[in-house]
Structures are given as C-alpha cells and as structure tokens.
Write a structure and sequence with these properties.
Chain lengths: 163, 121
Amino acid sequence: MTTTAGPSTGPTEAGPSTTTQVYELYIRATPDVLWDAITNPQVVARFFHGAQVESTYEVGAKLRSLSPDRSQVWGDNTILECDPPRRLVHTWRSLYDPALAAEPESRVTWEITAQPGGFCKLTLVHDRLDASPGTAANVTGWSYILSSLKTVVETGEPLPPMA
Amino acid sequence: MTSLTRDNLVTYLRGVDDDQVFKALADPTRRRLLDRLFKQDGMTLGELEAEVPELTRFGVMRHLTVLEAAGLVVTRKQGRHKHHYLNPVPIRRIHQRWMDKYTHGLAGALLDLKDHVEGER
C-alpha cells in the first residue's frame, strides 16, 4: 500500500484537487502476463502512445521513455520499487513538455492484485502532485493509457490513436 | 458473440458492466458526488456528507457503495480515514466503445487477436 498517498490538505473551493489520482480497472490476464505488459518495451509501445521505454527494472535504475522515433526524451525517471509481478513504483516528470518538465517530480505506482478466475485488478496511483498542478492536469490521459492496456492485453489490439 | 463490436472481446468483471455504470450515473445525487470528487479528489465520507446535507450519513454511504460497485469511485484507506477517488476508466471505456467503432475494423481486430492467441506468450 502506498501509505503516503492521499491529499495533504483538506478540501477547498479553490479548484480541482491535484494531489493524488487513482485509476482502477480489471483485466483478464494473470499477474505475470500483466506485469510483462507493463515492463516489456514492445508491449508498452502498443498502449503508451508508442513510447520506447528502456529500463532494467531494478530499484534505483533509470526508466527512460523516448518518442516513437527516439528523437525526443519523454521521460527520464527512476525505479523506486519493483516487486514483480505485483508492484512497480517510479518517479514521474513530463519531459515532453518544457513547462511540465520544470515542475517537481511526482510518483506513479502500479499495483497488480490477482483476482479469482484468472483476472487481475490493476490500480494506478499518481501522487506527490501537490506542487505540480500542470502535470496533474495533463496526466488525465491515464484513463486512455490504462484502457488501451486492457484492450492490448485482452485482445492483442491497441486502441486507435487518441484524437 | 451477440454483436460484432470489438468490446465483446474484452471482459467486464465483478459485475462491473455498462449497466451498472449507467445506473450509477442515473441518479442526480450520485452525479453530484462525482462532481464533487472531480473538483476535489480524495474526500472522506465526512467531507462528502457535508456536500449533501439533505441526506443522512447512511444515505451518502449507500450512494457511494453504488458508485464504488460500478467502478466509478475507488477508495483508499489512509490511517483511519477512507479517501474516495473518482475513477474515470469505466467512462473512458464507454466512450471508446462507441467512438472507436467506426475507426477500427473488426476484421483487423480479429486478425490481431488470432495472432495474439496463436503467437508466443
């Protein structure tokens, strides 16, 4: 459990919360297949806007993400926790946008929980966003990414590019 | 296969299907709760209660249970508080169900599925 997740401030009328985002979905796959999908560069490219990822997936290792043609760096993050096939935690900075790249680092946690009958619950928590409102507003694409991941894993077919 | 849409190839689990999502959304109070979480994610039951003063605590809990069962709200315990988060994934999938239908050929999907099933995994 990400015990530090959660808003650090009480509710306000100031606008959207930007501290923690939680996404959850159920996927028909074993934990191993799902783990492979989120750590295998060939599969990641199919659901993550064609991103080319590179990492040894060891704690402290870099998790680099490049544009499909490898001309731009999209992410240069660090693996914080890696417990296959259950839990992957890494830092997040949106290097694809200069304004967002200037914001402090945030954190992404992938949690895979096996369910009876060959299914998994996948929970993605994006937190430590308190000081990164632009990133928080810009990562709402997670629902598209995760939905696409589900479709790739279950059918082998990625979703069409997001309009 | 009752209908030739790509969505029949994917699963809806734990009874979380479109019916549940639409039923959950068909109530104005539940939409208000989602609107509130959209503005301020991670609220506790107590904080959400204050948003719908006309309801009892039990009433708010019942609505949150419906939203959670439909997958529209995810809860995370932190200390002794339970925080509620808006989960946009079910709505995204409903969106994709109809928006993608015309942009993606079924034949291609089935061919890819065949490759996927028959390929090395």
